[in-house]
Design a protein that fits this description.
This protein is mostly helical. It has one domain. The chain has five helices and no strands. Helix 1 crosses helix 4 and helix 4 packs parallel to helix 5.
Length: 142
């Protein structure tokens, strides 16, 4: 997604002030997809009036969920809650921050796999029963 597309998507979400209607459409889309793909469990957005009233636009709703996703991703990747760290302020920043955290996690997994491979190699060398290739005491026997 390029910046122009992201801006137009954000602008489109900001233009939607019928949040209840937006939620109803999102829930309908989720139900349709779940039935078509044979899901056995899924959740829908809340439709309670008090909940919906918290959001002035669809952008506000999507930002709320993106910030929650960022929070959970941060906690999962770093292993602790982001105390003292503010959530990204825009939907685009949230998406970028989540992508960055996911890349960080991928790099950590690669590093961990390389470390495990190195440990396995060193253990195999230590357990190798083949004779020494160099005996430092051989010259003393002579």
């Amino acid at each position: 997604m390029n910046l122009d597309t992201a801006i137009s998507e954000s602008d489109a979400l900001r233009a939607i002030t019928d949040v209840a209607g937006y939620i109803a459409q999102q829930n309908e889309d989720t139900n349709s997809r779940a039935k078509a793909e044979g899901w056995t469990f899924w959740t829908l957005l809340p439709t309670d009036g008090a909940w919906v009233a918290r959001f002035a636009t669809a952008y506000d709703l999507e930002l709320y969920y993106a910030q929650a996703g960022w929070f959970e991703t941060y906690r999962e990747v770093r292993g602790y809650k982001p105390r003292g760290v503010s959530a990204p302020a825009s939907l685009e920043e949230c998406n970028e921050a989540i992508a960055s955290l996911c890349a960080e996690e991928d790099a950590r997994k690669v590093h961990e796999a390389e470390r495990e491979d190195e440990e396995a190699r060193l253990l195999a060398e230590a357990m190798d029963a083949s004779p020494l290739t160099h005996n430092p005491f051989a010259g003393l026997l002579g």
